[in-house]
Amino acid sequence: MKKGILIVVSAPAGCGKDTILEQALAKNDNLFYSVSATSRAMRPGETDGVSYHFKTREQFEDMINNGELLEYTEYCGNYYGTPKKAVTDMLEAGKDVILKIEIEGAANVKRIFPDCTMIFILPPSIKELDRRLHKRGTETEEVIALRLQQAKKELAFAENYDYLVVNEDLTVAVEDFLAVVMGEKCSKKRSVGLIEEILSDER
Ligand code: 5GP
């Protein structure tokens, strides 16, 4: 069985990464979304085990000490981490695994899995990102300004990613994302020995 590919996705808040991933997962059965563990509080609309595995700080620290996490980080005062077993099991089973993680965790994953595919989702412009953050209508001007500042910092790291998907139009962004996954799966570097195998009549 051919192993799946590991896909790391990062994007600042307000770039629509959750919606893009939701739609991409609905369209491609071979994609598996890795549910992270976090010590942050559950938000309205979230479900334990689906959005995240919600843990106390103590439970999270036990996971760290037991070596259960592939990577973890502290972001805005909360722990976030990727459970190792589900990821490695799914890759072995041939599934393409998506990690939706911030830039520091992404850089750590790249060190552990150098052949992972790194995708950064970008807003079409800072003006548009500002508009989208305001549209949510849930945060104060001060929080929005902070988020925008944080987004600009994170955007500078897009440089380190393999693919950039601009979310100007959601449908196009989903198609672009799925095309990147397919392109990667067909790349020659992921099919070492395939040509020889076909030529040698082993099939
Ligand atoms: P939120 O609290 O808004 O759900 O997530 C905050 C940030 O943490 C997002 O950038 C999200 O991608 C990132 N994140 C979620 N899960 C993980 C994880 O397992 N590891 C790392 N390093 N970052 C994560």
What does the model show?
It contains eight helices and nine strands. The protein is of the alpha/beta class. The strands form two sheets. It has a five-stranded parallel β-sheet, sandwiched between helices. Strands 4-3-6-5 form a four-stranded mixed β-sheet. Helix 5 (126-135) runs antiparallel to helix 6. It is globular.
Short description:
The chain is built from eight helices and nine strands. With 203 residues, the protein is of the alpha/beta class. The mean pLDDT is 95.
Sum up the structure in keywords:
five-stranded parallel β-sheet, binds guanosine-5'-monophosphate, alpha/beta, four-stranded mixed β-sheet
| Count of alpha/pi helices | 8
Total number of strands: 9
Principal-axes shape call: globular
Cα gyration radius (Å): 18 Å
The description of the largest β-sheet is: 5 strands, parallel
What bound compounds does this protein have? Answer: guanosine-5'-monophosphate
Question: How far apart are the first and last residues' alpha carbons, in Å?
Answer: 14 Å
Order of the strands making up the biggest sheet: 2-7-1-8-9
- Secondary-structure element sequence? EHEEEHEEHEHEHHEHH
Fraction of residues in helix? 40-55%
Unreliable stretches covering 5 or more consecutive residues:
none
Q: Please state the average pLDDT score.
A: 95
Decide which structural class fits the backbone: alpha/beta
Beta-strand residue fraction: 15-25%
